[in-house]
Each structure stands twice: as C-alpha cells, then as structure tokens.
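Sorry to interrupt, but I need a hand with the structure work. I would like you to pick a protein and set down its sequence and fold. Please put the record directly below this note.
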Amino acid sequence: LRFTPETNRRNIPIVKRALGRPSAWPTISDCAELHSTKRAYSRFSESAMQDFAQGSLVEDLAAAPERRFRFAYPKRWEAHIYSTLPLVWSALKKVSVPVLGVRGVDSDVLSPAMWQRWASRHPSHQLHEVKNVGHLARLEQPTVVAELIAEWLETL
C-alpha cells in the first residue's frame, strides 16, 4: 500500500475491510467457518468453502498455535488490488484480443452501472452475467463459469 495515496486507503470501504480482516487461524476449519458467515462467501457450498480455506492458507509451524494457518498472501496485497481497481478502464482501452467478461448478477463489486459502462464502451467484448451468484462467480458456480468459458473459446 505504500504506493497507494492515503486518501484511497481511507475512502474505499472495501480496502478498509480487507485491512481489518483476520489473517491467521488455529485451524483451516476455523478460517472456513469465519468466512462462511460473510456475505461475499454466503453462497459457497460447505465443500467449496473448505476448498477455499485450504487453498488460501499456508501452515506456519513457527507461529503460535492460535495463528498456525495464515493466508498465503498478505491482506495488504488484497487491499492494494481493491485500491487500484479504477485503473481497469484505461487498461481495457488497450486490449486488442478477444475478451470474455463474466459477472455475477448479485455482485456488490462490479455494479450494474459499471457493467453497462463496460458493455457500451467495448461492444466487441463478450459479456455474460451469471444468475444467483455474487462477485465470486467462478468459486460459487465453477461449472457454469467453466461452461461459459469453454463455449466462448469455441467461438474464437
């Protein structure tokens, strides 16, 4: 975050939430249990939540037992990504290859207004919305998203 202006960190709610989240747990199941109560993960199946936790954590044998499992990436990294999201619009202008965009209809990160902005500025991009999922569509409905990608690849 040292390259992100202080005003961005202070004013973007999702950045504040990312920095305030716990980042270590005594067990993988403790991490899964905590995240399953959060809105972003509420649509995950129990097995998907366990897979998410197991794939996101590394074991730190030198840590205290209550902090034995920690995210493989620091929460500052996630906060930095959230603080630089607006840069995507200028990057999209430069894309010269086919693009597939996938959005969960219930996403609270990629709003309907942003989705419409993308569609109107880049009519050649193939944009698909997945019903009954939020921002983490590829984790909430991996089969549906994989099928969309496979069908899109067949058109190239």
